[in-house]
Amino acid sequence: MRAMVLRGGQKLAVEELARPAPKPGWVLVKVRACGICGSDLHMARYADERMAAARASGRAAAFPMDLDRGVVMGHEWVAEIVEVGPEVEGWEPGDRVTMVPPHDHLPGLPRSGEGGPGYSADYPGGYGQYMIVRGDRLLRVPDHVPDLVAATTEPCAVGLHAVREARLASDEHVLVMGAGPIGMMTLLWLKHDGVRHVTVSDYSAQRRELAARHGADLVLDPAVDDVAARVAEAAGGPPAVVFECVGVEGTIQQAMELVAPRGRVVVVGVCMTPDQMTPMLAIVKHLTLQFLYAYTAAEVEETLAALADGRVDTSALVTRTVSLDDLPGAFRALSDPADCKVMVEFA
Ligand SMILES: [Zn+2]
After folding, report:
1. How far is the CA of 235 from the centre of ligand 1 (A)?
2. Which of 34, 74, 203, 294 lies 20 to 30 Å (CA to CA) from residue 152?
């Protein structure tokens, strides 16, 4: 099979690999589409360092992304079952499925003790033609849901988790910093849950336009707009919650400056480098900083159901699809602010 393989030195290339075979409890699937995720970009950039650190500390086994053997990333996939391994109940070849949460600690899921597809040299992920996935972690995609929508289930569940963890009161209004895929998914769930006023800020005009089209009550350009003044004017005061969906150095501090006294900063963006903030600012404002990871299994199911019945519509967030051969180039260029979610589609 063909797949985009990450190797040491941030090398990314399409290679020919052996097709994996399903073992007991697992199924072989043919990938139909897979979203490019910002966290995979971060992973590609920092995987060398993390592997070296794991080896230096004698915990190489805890870091299954062995770059010497090569890793096929990709966890935002929709696929079709090709072969069902022994001891798998309820699935047949031809079934269309999505979403094996690879995160071992998620509540409500059996623990595998091994890295999942997309995060391990043993289990290729959705940036390749075939993968093996656990039969007990699959969700059936209803026939009427297009591939490109089904493949947004995973990032969309991240937005749901962020919104639910923020526990918003009905009179609270919010600011979403960043209108990339995760900021947009957060916006969709905020509107779904009926939050009264949502401001979205982003430097990209295309992304601001996308946010406006998806229900943002106010969109701002931090390069030219006085965000604090504009939010206060439009919504009657500073936001009770700021969702930080950028994930670069300095944005948590900005969120702390913009949020209301006694407000909450919900950190959804994934910053993988040391960052600075001034605790005194959070202290005098009596702020809560909240960090999140992933979603619950129930939230993933709720997300797919909402996508299936149209309560949440991610279809316009997929701004570009590429072939596997074009994936390495698209992957490196993903910071292009004209794009939101980019997907690889398999013929
Ligand atoms: Zn992701």
Report:
1. 32
2. 203
